[in-house]
Design goal:
alpha/beta
């Protein structure tokens, strides 16, 4: 079975923020999943979203964080917590129920904030090498100033399949990458990529939580992920072999198996 992704722009009116034009890809039917990308942008979850939709007949919604991939970002949309409110409003607007939120890196941080809002429409979260907390002795790697190959070396167990020659990147793509980085800095801060209050708040998460971590992640080490899981009541922690910071790209089948998509 194949799944066709349909990209649309939805105007989502968020309390305290106002109307936000949100680019959303939707594909498949059935059990709903909200998939949230990290700083690498929406392309870092695109293939995984397709696999998720195809394997088991799921409905997959993949928004682009405003400010990424050339999309507009309203000035007042300036934090991870506000992104969480945006996506909960999107879920409400779509009339979705029993939603599982899967987030990678900063997308995982957004998923944690969504869970803390206690929305009845959300039934579980999956954190893929999430950032957002502060763990003594295990800071999030500061990638500012690093080259693309250096960042990839930290991000993947084996960066070979994902290598890009910086000299071949078109100017338009460079501009988008720069804008992505600027948007990420607004939402998550740089280089900390953390909210000092989050670790003390996630013990209030009351929905099923799965924390998946690449054993070769050098952006946020597995010990960081273990601390994340230990702070969330009942959370399950699983380390994925031969996997870096973006399991949905490097070992998507392991992620699908862990999420129990049938």
């Amino acid at each position: 079975m194949t799944s066709t992704a349909e990209s649309t722009t939805k105007t989502v009116n968020v309390t305290g923020i106002g109307p936000v034009d949100l680019t959303v890809q939707e594909q498949g039917d059935g059990r709903p999943f909200l998939v949230l990308h990290g700083g690498a942008g929406p392309q870092s979850v695109a293939k995984f979203a397709q696999l998720l939709a195809e394997k088991g007949g799921n409905r997959v919604i993949t928004p682009t964080h405003p400010g990424f991939s050339g999309t507009p970002r309203p000035d007042q949309l300036n934090s991870v917590a506000k992104l969480a409110a945006l996506y909960l409003t999107l879920v409400d607007d779509l009339g979705l129920e029993d939603v599982t939120v899967i987030g990678n890196s900063v997308g995982g941080w957004i998923a944690a904030e969504i869970a803390l809002l206690g929305a009845a429409r959300i039934s579980g979260i999956v954190l893929l090498d999430a950032v957002g907390i502060e763990v003594d002795g295990h800071p999030v790697a500061d990638v500012s100033g690093l080259s693309v190959p250096e960042i990839q070396a930290l991000s993947f167990h084996d960066p070979t399949p994902f290598r890009v020659d910086p000299a071949t990147i078109p100017d338009a793509q460079r501009a988008i990458m720069a804008a992505n980085g600027a948007a990420l800095a607004v939402y998550a801060g740089s280089p900390a990529m953390a909210d000092p209050t989050l670790f003390g708040r996630i013990n209030a998460i009351s929905i099923p939580t799965l924390v998946l971590w690449g054993d070769s992640d050098r952006i946020v080490e597995p010990a960081y992920g273990e601390a994340y899981a230990s702070a969330i009541p009942g959370a399950r922690f699983e380390v994925l072999p031969a996997t870096g910071h973006m399991p949905q790209m490097e070992t998507p089948d392991l992620v699908l198996d862990a999420v129990a998509v049938e």
